[in-house]
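As noted in the main text, all predictions were made from sequence alone. Below is one such record, for Haloacid dehalogenase.
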Amino acid sequence: MICWDHIDTVLLDMDGTLLDLYFDNYFWMEFLPQRYAEAKHISLDDAKTQLFARFSEHRGTLNWYCLDFWRQETGLDIVAMKAEVKDLIGLRPNAITFLQKVRESGRKAVLITNAHRGSLDLKLEQIPMAPHFDGIFSSHDFGLPKEDPHLWSRLQAVMHYEPARTLLIDDSLAVLRSAKKAGIAHTLGVLQPDSQKQSMDTEEFIGLDCFSRIYPPSAQPDNH
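Prediction:
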């Protein structure tokens, strides 16, 4: 599935890749609409109709991922509400072991997420992944979503990775296509981002069902 001899850097998405997307899907599709309905004194169906229309309008843009934007749109404290259901945040199988093995093999592991810092900080507090990364970045740091191919050169200026020797693992086909356009040579899609939903079609990308299938080989000892 992967030729590790050709890879020095592993870029990893967070939600739906390292973490189970169930938390985010539940929050945006169920928890937020319920609270919005209560706040606006409307039915849950009306709340979903209003919110989902706005979601569609902004999907794939930086606003879609910006908790400050949705706070303004809804009048609700999105960060505080996410904290209320933080116990639903969970890892995908073998994610931490994979990160450990990437680092042990001498390669860099870098988190690059579209998540807003308010969500990123909450998740890193709940799931202590930070020590396993050489860098942690939100697309908001660069002013572009990962769907924009220019994001990758901005990240490259900070992390100094070589696109031809870089692997990206992500659950978004739009993001994977953006990275391909930017010259990132190795890509994997995630087959089942949300453990409560069916596997998805990763189309032109090889699909990954579990990190245990792609552990890198251990670094060879230096005998010199």
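Residues 23-87 form one domain. The mean pLDDT is 95. These features were considered when defining construct boundaries for the mutagenesis experiments described in Section 2.9.
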